[in-house]
C-alpha cells in the first residue's frame, strides 16, 4: 500500500519523491509506504484551502451538515475495517479501536446537527427601532495537527466543527498514523466535500509543522500532543498573533477513599491505567488511595496487572497491545530506574519482554509502582505508557491536594459512597474533566473536553465549546429609526 497527500481535490505524491514507512508496532510488519511532504506541499495545501474558503463559507450550513451526515454513514458502514487498520497501525486492541471510530462517528453526527443551529443571540437594543444580534463567523484556514493515539476520533474533533462553521482545513496527522488520516479524508471526499476544503499533508512534524503554523494564510492552529510541542507552537503563533487551541498532557489521578466500593475502583483503575496501553491523555497514571484501604487496593491492582496478556491487538485474547514506537518504549522503560532511584517499588511489571513474538514489537509490561510520594518524577511527569503510580493519602483533603499537585489538569476521578466528599472533589479538583465512581477515561463528545493549567490554553474540544474555537463572534446592530441615535449618550428630556 502507498499513501499520498490530498491537495485541492487530488491525491498525489510530494514532489520530494521521498517516502517513509508505516509499520505495525506489534510486530514490525510493513503496512504502507508514505509520501514525505516538504514545505512546498504545505504551501500548496494552504493555498488550496484559502481559495476554497471563498466559496465554502457561503455554502448554507445545513448543506455542509448534509455532507457530514453522509460521512457519518460511511464511517458506520466501514467501522470494522477502519478499526482493524487502526489496530495494525498504532497497536491498541480492537475493541478500543472500534471505540475510537465510534467516537468519530458520534462527533460527526453531533456536529452535523450544528448545520441547523450555530445559535447566536438576538437581544433587545437600548434604543428604539434598533435591532441587536450576534452570529458566528468562520475564521478561514485551520491547521489541524493531530496525534496518533486517537487517529480517527481526534481529527474529527477538529475537522468537523471547523467545516460546519465554514472554515477550510489543512490536516497534518501524526506520522505514525497516516493510514487512518487517509481513510478519514477518503470518507469526506466520498461524502461530497468540494475540492480544496480539506487538504491532507503527510510527513513528520519539525519543519513541516513550523511552516504550517507560521504560514501567513493559516488563521488558527488546533493542536493535540505533548506540552513541549504545544509550548513551541504557541510561541511561534503568539508572535504572529495567530489563534491557537492546544490540548496537551495529563497526569490524571484516581482517588479511592476508605468508603469506596473497592471492586468498582479496581476495575476503573485497571481500565484507565492500562487501556490503550496507557497512551491516552486521560490515562490514570496516578492512583491516590486512602491509607485505610491502600493495602487492599495495591494487592488487587497488582494481581490484575500481572494477569494481563500482552499481544497483537487483533488477537481476541490480548489485553494489552504494544506502545506506538521504539522511542515510546524506551521512554516508558527509562522511568523504571528513575522510580527505583527515588525510592519507589516496582510491584508489578517493569520490564520490556525480550523473548518470543513479543520481542518483535514495542511492548512494555503493565507496571504498578508503589511507595510513591507525590513529588517524585513518576508522580509528576507524563509517561504515556502502561505505568501507574500508587500514592497514599490521609483523607479526602490530602487526596485533593495531591491530585492538584502537578502542573497538569485534564481528568481525575474519585471513588466514594459519601456524597459530601464527592461534591467537595467536584468543586476543588483542578481538572477539566471529573468523574465520580468511574475511571479517568471515556469522555463523551457532547460535553467539552480539555484541561486546566498546563494541559491546555483555555480552550475546549468537542461539545458546544468546540464551536467557540473555530468561529468568531460578529455583533450586528441594525438601526431602522431613520435618524442618528447615540448609544450610552444622555439625551436632554
Ligand atoms: C486522548 O487521549 O487524547 O476520554 C483522547 C477519553 C477518550 C478520548 C481520549 N474519549 O479517554
Description of the molecule:
This protein has 493 residues and is an alpha/beta fold. It folds into two domains: 2-248 and 456-476, Aldehyde Dehydrogenase, Chain A, domain 1 (3-Layer(aba) Sandwich); 252-436, Aldehyde Dehydrogenase, Chain A, domain 2, CATH 3.40.309.10. Helices cover 38% and strands 21% of the residues. The strands form five sheets. It has a seven-stranded mixed β-sheet with strand order 15-16-17-14-13-18-19, with helices on both faces. The chain has a five-stranded parallel β-sheet with strand order 10-9-8-11-12, sandwiched between helices. The model has no long low-confidence stretch (mean pLDDT 97). The structure holds 2-aminohexanedioic acid. 2-aminohexanedioic acid binds at residues 103, 149-150, 280-282, 441-443.
Amino acid at each position: 500500500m502507498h499513501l499520498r497527500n490530498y491537495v485541492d481535490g487530488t491525491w498525489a505524491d510530494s514532489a520530494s519523491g521521498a517516502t517513509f514507512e508505516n509499520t505495525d508496532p506489534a510486530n514490525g510488519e510493513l503496512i504502507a509506504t508514505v509520501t514525505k511532504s516538504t514545505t512546498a506541499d504545505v504551501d500548496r495545501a494552504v493555498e488550496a484551502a484559502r481559495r476554497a474558503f471563498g466559496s465554502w463559507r457561503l455554502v448554507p450550513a445545513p448543506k455542509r451538515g448534509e455532507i457530514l451526515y453522509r460521512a457519518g454513514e460511511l464511517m458506520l458502514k466501514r467501522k470494522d475495517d477502519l478499526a482493524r487498520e487502526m489496530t495494525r497501525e498504532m497497536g491498541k486492541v480492537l475493541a478500543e479501536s472500534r471505540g475510537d471510530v465510534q467516537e468519530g462517528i458520534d462527533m460527526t453526527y453531533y456536529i452535523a446537527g450544528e448545520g441547523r443551529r450555530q445559535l447566536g443571540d438576538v437581544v433587545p437594543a437600548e434604543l428604539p427601532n434598533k435591532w441587536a444580534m450576534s452570529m458566528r463567523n468562520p475564521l478561514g484556514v485551520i491547521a489541524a495537527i493531530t496525534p496518533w493515539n486517537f487517529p480517527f476520533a481526534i481529527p474529527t474533533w477538529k475537522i468537523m466543527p471547523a467545516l460546519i462553521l465554514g472554515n477550510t482545513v489543512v490536516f497534518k496527522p501524526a506520522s505514525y498514523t497516516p493510514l487512518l488520516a487517509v481513510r478519514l479524508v477518503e470518507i469526506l471526499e466520498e461524502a461530497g466535500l468540494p475540492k480544496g476544503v480539506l487538504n491532507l499533508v503527510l510527513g513528520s512534524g519539525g519543519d513541516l509543522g513550523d511552516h504550517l503554523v507560521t504560514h501567513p494564510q493559516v488563521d488558527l492552529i488546533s493542536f493535540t500532543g505533548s506540552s513541549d510541542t504545544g509550548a513551541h507552537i504557541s510561541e511561534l503563533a503568539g508572535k504572529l498573533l495567530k489563534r491557537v487551541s492546544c490540548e496537551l498532557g495529563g497526569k490524571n489521578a484516581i482517588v479511592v477513599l476508605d468508603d469506596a466500593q473497592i471492586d468498582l475502583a479496581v476495575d476503573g483503575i485497571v481500565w484507565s491505567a492500562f487501556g490503550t496501553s496507557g497512551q491516552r491523555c486521560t490515562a490514570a497514571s496516578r492512583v491516590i488511595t486512602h491509607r485505610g484501604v491502600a493495602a487492599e487496593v495495591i494487592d488487587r491492582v497488582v494481581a490484575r496487572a500481572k494477569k494481563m496478556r500482552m499481544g497483537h491487538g487483533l488477537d481476541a485474547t490480548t489485553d494489552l497491545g504494544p506502545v506506538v514506537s521504539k522511542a515510546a518504549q524506551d521512554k516508558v522503560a527509562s522511568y523504571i530506574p528513575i522510580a527505583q532511584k527515588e525510592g519507589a517499588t516496582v510491584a508489578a511489571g517493569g520490564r520490556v519482554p525480550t523473548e518470543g513474538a513479543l520481542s518483535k514489537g514495542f511492548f512494555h509490561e503493565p507496571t504498578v509502582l508503589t511507595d510513591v510520594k507525590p513529588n517524585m518524577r513518576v508522580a509528576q511527569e507524563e509517561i504515556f505508557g502502561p505505568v501507574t503510580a500508587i500514592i497514599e493519602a490521609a483523607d479526602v483533603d490530602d487526596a485533593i491536594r495531591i491530585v492538584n499537585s502537578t502542573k497538569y489538569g485534564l481528568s481525575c476521578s474519585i471513588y466514594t459512597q459519601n456524597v459530601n466528599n464527592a461534591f467537595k472533589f467536584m468543586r476543588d479538583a483542578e481538572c477539566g474533566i471529573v468523574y465520580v465512581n468511574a475511571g479517568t477515561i471515556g469522555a463523551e463528545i457532547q460535553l467539552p473536553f480539555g484541561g486546566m493549567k498546563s494541559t491546555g490554553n483555555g480552550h475546549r474540544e468537542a461539545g458546544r465549546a468546540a464551536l467557540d474555537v473555530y468561529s468568531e463572534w460578529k455583533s450586528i446592530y441594525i438601526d431602522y429609526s431613520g435618524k442618528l441615535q447615540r448609544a450610552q449618550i444622555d439625551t436632554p428630556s
